[in-house]
Amino acid sequence: MRFLSLIWSNLKRKKLRTSLTILSIVVAFVLFGLLCSLKEAFTAGVNMAGADRLIVRHKISLIMDLPFTYGSRIERIPGVAAAVHWTWFNGIYQNEPKNFFGSFPVEPEPFLSMHPEYVVAEDQKQKWLQTRTGAVVGRTLAQRFEWEIGDRVPLTSPIWPRENEEAWEFDIVGIYDGAKKSTDTSGFFFRYDYFDEARARGEGQVGWYVVRVEDADRVAEVAQKIDDEFANSPYETKTEPEGAFAQGFVQQIGDIATMLVAILSAVFFTILLVAGNTMAQAVRERTEELGVLKAMGFTDGLVLVLVLAESCLIASVGGLIGLGLAWLATAGGSPAPSILPVFYFPVPDMLIGVAIVVALGVVTGIFPALQAMRLQIAVALRRHA
Fold it and tell me: Which of 38, 40, 249, 344 is the most buried (most CB within 10 A)?
């Protein structure tokens, strides 16, 4: 600590250059944090997928429905523990297309049993079972539209019009939270029996099934049995692990991980050059001073540590400020809940960022530090003369 003032004095020598270097590092790590949050937003469904859950959909396309009766047939297949159906409703609030969100008719008890990641208070669950028009909504969605339990919400759907062509009316009886931070809490779930009786067409049809298998090691075997059960029928199926199903949506956008690595590699390579050049210039400008320090008894190792500490301090100040700003920017939730329902800076990625800060300080400072360590006193003082 006694050399901290010396290091700080060296950094203040060229205030503008040091400030600009730190600012560039701040920007780089803010970008790192936001891109990691964006990656989490797109891959949250993949991360939350159950290893023992399968998705059964129409073989041709997800937009084609399956019969409601498939549920009982799937549950009779050896290795299947339970099956629940989902249907995409595409609810729109206040007849504003921008106010769309994920909405699904389900059977409450089987649905909640299949998906423990959705946490609903017991009294709210019971209310849902007792209220035919009841719905439970995610915390994020409730905050987005300022809904509260007891509110009556009208929705329209371009896919599923109501039989009398009126808006669908739902009573909010519960607000669910996520068991984990990566759980999507922007959904709207309501009762299938109310939906099936009131829709204008498609009675007895569902979108897809989520199936839990008894043994996660046998998911491939069970998936094949399910598809064999409905082979050569009017509604053939395609069964795949839930993670693969979610990954398919992500891949429609592109390889998020590869794009993230490519962008950040370019950014950090540029920052490496900027910070490395700053340190190299600082050492060259202080050649005579380094020679004086060595003449006063500073060892080569101590000179190396001083220069390296200076580099690490610049990287730490810029990097930690950048990571902190990225965390603050994502702490308030998603800027676009309808598109990115899950949006936060994951702790593992934050720890990786801290490791990159340390690595950046060492890499940008090691060569100037070695140069300073090898500097001969006579050569340094001769320049001064």
Answer: 40
- Look-up of token digits 């208070």: 121
**DSSP designation for 188:** E
Q: What is the pLDDT of residues 337-382, one digit of tens each?
A: 656 667 778 888 899 999 999 998 888 888 887 877 777 766 656 6
Amino acid of residue 25? I
Of 377, 88, 112, 84, nearest in space to 249 by CA: 88
**Helix/strand/coil (H/E/C) assignment for every residue in 297-358:** CCCHHHHHHHHHHHHHHHHHHHHHHHHHHHHHHHHCCCCCCCCCCCCCCCHHHHHHHHHHHH
Helix H, strand E, coil C: the string for 141-171 is HHHHHCCCCCCEEEEECCCCCECCCCCEEEE
Residue 252 three-state SS: helix
Q: Distance (Å, rounded) from C-alpha 107 to C-alpha 85?
A: 8
Nearest of 313, 307, 298 to residue 280 by alpha carbon: 307
Between β-strands 80-86 and 208-213, what pairing exists: parallel, antiparallel or unpaired? antiparallel
